[in-house]
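Why should sequence recovery work at all? Because a backbone constrains its sequence more than one might expect. Tight turns favour small or flexible residues, buried strands favour hydrophobic ones, and helices have their own preferences. The token representation captures these environments compactly. In the example below, the structure is given first.
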């Protein structure tokens, strides 16, 4: 049995990933044909990509703006229209995000095997089983299912370059690392902050100070240039006057930074100041048997991503009493 698993390891892994892909893709197909997908989270991407595939300005009538004024995702504007050349249907986007997300699971499997290989006392079969278990935990975690079984979101597109970035960090392949950093930056404007968090991880985990500092600088500069200069350019004449449509009066970068400087403790309290946030943290940890706590440095980029969501009051269904207890202006 053990020898068979080792002999057919690649075949088993590939079949497992394909089954996961077809499972999630089928569910998304069923959701769409049963009218369970929505305009704001699917049509807002489908319309601009369809127009771009026809050589027309990628415009969203829901946001009444150029799609790059809503989110800066030039990579999606390249891949999406190419897919629509084959079949101009929103299910192509749903299947695209499923494919990208499941592909990131393959990277996690390879990365975990490589890390476990450094533990000499583990036999090959144990490394295979543990890597498979970790990959399955990822594929069927609450967060992953919520991500790929919702409507289309450009955030999902970062899963593959993000996992590859950690693979290259582990291998100290800095050329591959910088290529994936660039990949992350052209996926969505807010991922400049994620890149900055990865830079901090590189400093504390790999002791590569110059690379880490350069990454932090590139991440922050990219983020502010995109939301303050590039996106407003595409927003000229739109219904929305702001450069970044999804920033409200409570979570604009300048306001958030000012609030953190004045009240540093809110950086921590923002993670736990609402039951829904605490539930999200709990389910995220339980999905991975709390194993992330054993590798605290890897929680740096995770914490950044959660904080981006948690500082926005609109991310939770706050009642009036909860609103008055928050540290953010209303």
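From this structural description, the recovered sequence reads:
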């Amino acid at each position: 049995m053990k020898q068979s698993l080792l002999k057919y390891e690649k075949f088993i892994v590939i079949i497992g990933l394909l089954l996961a892909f077809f499972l999630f893709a089928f569910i998304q197909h069923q959701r769409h044909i049963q009218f369970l997908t929505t305009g704001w989270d699917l049509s807002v991407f489908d319309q601009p990509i369809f127009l771009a595939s026809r050589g027309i300005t990628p415009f969203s009538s829901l946001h009444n703006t150029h799609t790059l004024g809503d989110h800066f995702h030039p990579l999606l504007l390249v891949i999406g229209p190419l897919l629509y050349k084959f079949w101009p249907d929103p299910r192509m986007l749903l299947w695209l995000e499923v494919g990208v997300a499941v592909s990131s699971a393959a990277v996690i499997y390879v990365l975990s095997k490589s890390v476990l290989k450094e533990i000499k006392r583990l036999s090959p079969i144990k490394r295979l089983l543990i890597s498979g278990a970790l990959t399955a935990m990822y594929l069927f975690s609450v967060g992953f299912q919520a991500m790929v079984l919702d409507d289309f979101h450009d955030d999902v597109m970062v899963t593959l370059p993000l996992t590859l970035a950690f693979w290259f960090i582990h291998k100290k392949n800095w050329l591959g690392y910088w290529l994936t950093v660039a990949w992350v930056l052209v996926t969505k404007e807010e991922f400049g902050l994620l890149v900055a968090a990865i830079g901090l991880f590189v400093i504390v985990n790999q002791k590569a100070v110059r690379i880490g500092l350069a990454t932090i600088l590139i991440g922050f500069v990219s983020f502010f240039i995109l939301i303050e200069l590039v996106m407003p350019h595409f927003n000229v004449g739109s219904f929305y006057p702001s450069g970044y449509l999804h920033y409200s009066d409570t979570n604009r970068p300048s306001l958030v930074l000012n609030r953190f400087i004045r009240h540093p403790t809110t950086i921590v309290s923002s993670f736990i100041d609402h039951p829904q946030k605490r539930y999200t943290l709990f389910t995220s940890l339980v999905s991975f048997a709390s194993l992330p706590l054993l590798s605290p440095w890897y929680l740096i980029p995770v914490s950044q991503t959660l904080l981006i969501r948690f500082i926005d009051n609109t991310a939770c269904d706050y009642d009036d009493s909860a609103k008055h207890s928050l540290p953010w202006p209303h």
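A few observations help interpret the result. Strands lie at 59-60, 65-66.
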